[in-house]
Design goal:
The protein is an alpha+beta fold and 182 residues long. It has one domain: Aminopeptidase, CATH 3.40.630.30. Helices cover 30% and strands 33% of the residues. It has 6 helices and 9 strands, in the order H-E-H-H-E-H-E-E-E-H-E-H-E-E-E. The chain has helices at residues 3-6, 17-28, 30-33, 51-59, 103-118, 133-141; strands spanning 7-11, 44-45, 63-70, 73-83, 86-94, 123-129, 145-152, 162-163, 169-176. The strands form 2 sheets. The chain has a 7-stranded mixed sheet with strand order 1-3-4-5-6-9-7, sandwiched between helices. Strand 4 and strand 5 form a beta hairpin. Helix 2 (17-28) crosses helix 4 (51-59). The longest helix is centred in the middle third of the chain and has 16 residues, at 103-118. InterPro entries: Acyl_CoA_acyltransferase, Bact_Acetyltransf, GNAT_dom. Residues 7-178 form the N-acetyltransferase domain. It is an enzyme of class 2 (transferase). GO terms for molecular function: acyltransferase activity.
Length: 182
Amino acid sequence: MSQSFLNSFRVAVPADVSSVVGLVESAYRGESGQRGWTTETHLLDGRRTDEESVAELIGRPGSLVLLMDRADALVACCHIEHQGDAGYFGMFAVSPELQTAGLGRTLLAEAERIARDEWRAIVMHMTVIEQRAELIAWYERRGYRLTGEFKPFPYGQERFGIPRREDLRFVCMSKSLSEVAA
């Protein structure tokens, strides 16, 4: 059986909040995050998200948290939001044990499909911590380009993490969804 038959997508509901938080935390923080390549522990301490923030994303109009299940277990998630003629992509996490299995690429493609086909978005935007060169390169291989714009890191807001450096900021990236095969 091919891997595509083993994965299924669904939109998160309030009952999924704690599972989403657990997955995001495992992918980005602490010891489990260090098993995968998406860890931010060298840049940030503290939490990556919390139940209140995830619940707000699930309940916000024009916003959804997309989940990928494999054999009834949550293995990947992302947040996408409809913003006019654009989509916004964020809170992307894949279980550290499965980060080289192609799940991220598959979930990103589904998020782009939803933005393009259901929201009629023409572009997808995202932000990435500037110091995450390997992650920026991963997105560039999937057609995203640096826009030359930056956004400040929310220093002093511990719900986004406790910075270990004073030079953090976000780079803005975008991808034309007309380039994505329909």
